[in-house]
Specification:
Keywords: DNA-binding, Transcription, Transcription regulation. It comes from Streptomyces pactum. The chain contains eight helices and eight strands, in the order αααααααββββββββα. The chain is an alpha+beta fold. α2 packs across α3.
Length: about 240
C-alpha cells in the first residue's frame, strides 16, 4: 500500500471517534481531498468514508462484547452523534441490533455475529472445518475465513474466523443448519490492489452436531467469484472485518 494511504488508514484507526472530514483525511496524506480519495479507493477498494464507518463499527463490536459500557456511550465513543444513526448503521451492516449482538456472549467466546436476527437462536449448530491451499509460498500468513448462508450469498457474512497460519486446520463453530458458501482471503507477495488472494467453495450443507470438512484453494482474488467483493481487497488493511 502507498505510504500516503497507509498514513490515512493509521490516522483513521487512531482518530475514528472524531468527526473526520475528507479534508482532514487529505491532510493526513498531504494530498488534496480528491486525490487522496481516488488513491484510497484504488488501494483499499473502498471510499474513505466507508472505511471510516467500518473502523467505527468494528470498534463498537469490540466494546459490545468485551465491556459493560452502555450502548448509548459506545455510540458516542465511536464517533456517532446519534444513537439512532448508530443503531441503524450497525443493524444494516451486521443484521442484528447492538443489543442483540451483545447478548451473543451467552454462546461463549467462539460465537460470532448472527446474520438473521434472533431467529438464529432456535437453530441447532454444526461446524465447518477445513484446510487452505496456496502456491505463493506464504504458508505462514494469516487467513480470514467467512461463511455465507446460501440464501443470502453476496450479503454480510454470518460466521467469521481468523486462521493464524495458512497451513493450520481451522474450524468455524456455531454454524446453523443449512446450505453455506465458504470464502477465505489472505495477503500475498504482490503489491497494491493485487496483494490479496482469495478462495471460495460451496454450497455445503451443515446439519446439527456434524462437522463439514472442506478444502479452499487461494488464488488472486480477481479470478475468484467471491460473495463479498468489497471486503476482499480491504481485508489486508483492516483484518478485523474477517476476524472473529
Amino acid at each position: 500500500m502507498r505510504a500516503e494511504i497507509e498514513q490515512v488508514v493509521e490516522g483513521i484507526r487512531k482518530r475514528y471517534e472524531e468527526p473526520l472530514s475528507l479534508c482532514d483525511l487529505g491532510e493526513m496524506a498531504r494530498l488534496t481531498p480528491f486525490h487522496m480519495a481516488r488513491l484510497f479507493r484504488e488501494q483499499t477498494g473502498l471510499p474513505p468514508a466507508r472505511f471510516l464507518t467500518a473502523v467505527r463499527l468494528e470498534e463498537a463490536k469490540r466494546r459490545l462484547l468485551r465491556t459493560d459500557v452502555s450502548i448509548a456511550d459506545i455510540s458516542l465513543g465511536v464517533g456517532y452523534a446519534s444513537i439512532g444513526s448508530f443503531t441503524t448503521r450497525f443493524t444494516k451492516t451486521f443484521g442484528v441490533s447492538p443489543g442483540q449482538y451483545r447478548r451473543m456472549t451467552q454462546l461463549g467466546p467462539d460465537a460470532v455475529e448472527f446474520a438473521g436476527g434472533s431467529a438464529d437462536a432456535s437453530y441447532a449448530y454444526g461446524a465447518i472445518q477445513g484446510r487452505l491451499r496456496r502456491d505463493d509460498g506464504l504458508d505462514h500468513a494469516s487467513v480470514f475465513v467467512a461463511a455465507f448462508h446460501a440464501a443470502s450469498a453476496g450479503d454480510r457474512p454470518a460466521r467469521c474466523y481468523r486462521v493464524g497460519r495458512s497451513s493450520d486446520l481451522w474450524t468455524i463453530p456455531y454454524v446453523p443448519e443449512g446450505r453455506w458458501f465458504i470464502e477465505a482471503v489472505s495477503l500475498t507477495s504482490a503489491q497494491g490492489g493485487g496483494c490479496v488472494v482469495a478462495g471460495s467453495v460451496g454450497p455445503v450443507f451443515v446439519t446439527p452436531g456434524a462437522v463439514v470438512r472442506v478444502d479452499v484453494a487461494l488464488e488472486p482474488y480477481r479470478r475468484v467469484r467471491v460473495a463479498d467483493s468489497e471486503r476482499c481487497p480491504l481485508a489486508f488493511s483492516l483484518p478485523d472485518l474477517y476476524a472473529s
